[in-house]
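User: Sequence in, structure out. Go.
Assistant: Echoing your sequence, followed by the structure tokens.
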Amino acid sequence: MAHEMMVLVLQLGIIVLFSRFFGWFFANVLKQSQVLGELISGMVIGPYLLGGIHLSVIHGPLFPLTGGTIPISPELYGFAVLGSIVLLFVSGLETDLPTFIKFSGKGTIVGLGGIVITFLLGNGIAVLLNPGIPNMLHPSALFLGTLSTATSVGITARILSDKRKLSSPEGVTILAAAVIDDVLSIVLLSIVIGMSAAASGGVGIVWGKIGIVALKAIGFWLICTIVGIILAPVFTRKMKVFESIDMIAGVSLGIALILAGVSEMFELAMIIGAYIAGLSFSRTDVAHEIHERTQGLYNFLVPIFFSAMGMMVNFGAIKEVFWFGLAFTLLGILGKIFGCGLPALFAGFNLRGAYRIGVGMMPRGEVTLIVAGIGLSSGAIGQDMFGVAIMTMLVASIAAPPLIIKSFEGGSGYRSKALDTGDARSHAIELQFPNFRAAEFMRRSLADGFREEGFFVHRLDHDRLVYQVRQNMIVFTLLQEQDKLILNTPPEHESFVRLMMMEKLLELKDFLSGLESMKSPDMMGAELMKGMFSLDAD
């Protein structure tokens, strides 16, 4: 036991060091996604490359092949699974439900188009080019079809944020569609897992079984999501009696783990429960605080997950299916461009906008890897098809950024007036100050005043002085632009915000009046020196 724990600790240490370095190198030097660096770090140090070298110090390889379906140790794979749960929990916390609901119509059309087309293409090519896969209901074909559906919203969102295009009609539609894509991919994964379990048990798959599995997955998702969204604000309000955000964050993560386990008990993927928990807490006023307090755990476990996924890549197996992998990747990319772009034409976008949405939905990422890892661990796909999944993610994620950047050059992609991404009911309250310092002083005073009233204030953008002020369902923004303060608030809360501003302005006036009543700096300095000399004399 002691030897096994020593090896595990050494493995985790090496993974953390290599994944951090590779992630930094890819993000800052190569200007690619950090995920790619973490994934490739696993390939380099994994059992199929450097990790398989015999080390006399530990009497064997650091990352030995286990001989089972999963080529890494169960202990290390456990850390990877925990990383995937934390990843989906945080992804749920970051989901903006109001935006999702507001653009759910266009996003649903675009997301469904991408899901259906890419699933059929991925599933179909698996059957056509692999003699060992007899039909489209074979577990391997189903997993490959599911693999091709998920979109990595993180890569696209980062690019659009850097280019200030997140609030464009195409930007908000991409985000809404990507959320729907990931949700449907997770539900589809649950259905595929149920069908694969039936097939492995020797039970023939019939449409009745498929319907039951689908209803079970969608029913569990909908019921838990609705109940979670309703109860999460009540739960966090009750938890505030402990006056500890750390405790609320810890209990929230515990609930995510329990819900992940319950999902597995229902023969669904654990990541579904984790995502539901994060999505439920995203509507509470402590969502940002939970996110901040789980960030350390996220930064430790999630790179381990991506690196462990990279360790499962068998280079010899990939060589045998390289041409199939290339065809699968190209069809997956084209499936997203046309599957999402064509419906966008019927949702009010022109050709330029439809193309932007199509390439914006190209990147693959964490959900693809999670689906591939579950397929590999269940035996539904082998090392060769797992390598195909990695190839798809690598090619799509590398090709997408330059295409997205290029596509957003030029005019609007929407046929009519640009969509209003802000809250049409919000009222803007503006205050003009004589200089930046005065506005900054007032902004800090307002933030402190709101915190004293039980609000949570956090910064939304590292490049701009824009803050969200939130308590339960009361949400508004505070923005400083040079010497001007702007508060955007719903009309029902405008009187409270104006009262708070008036109170802080009066405090500022009293403060300035107190300063004016003080003696001149020279007199104050003389009295201070006199006091110091008298102290020395004593």
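User: And one key feature?
Assistant: The radius of gyration is 27 Å.
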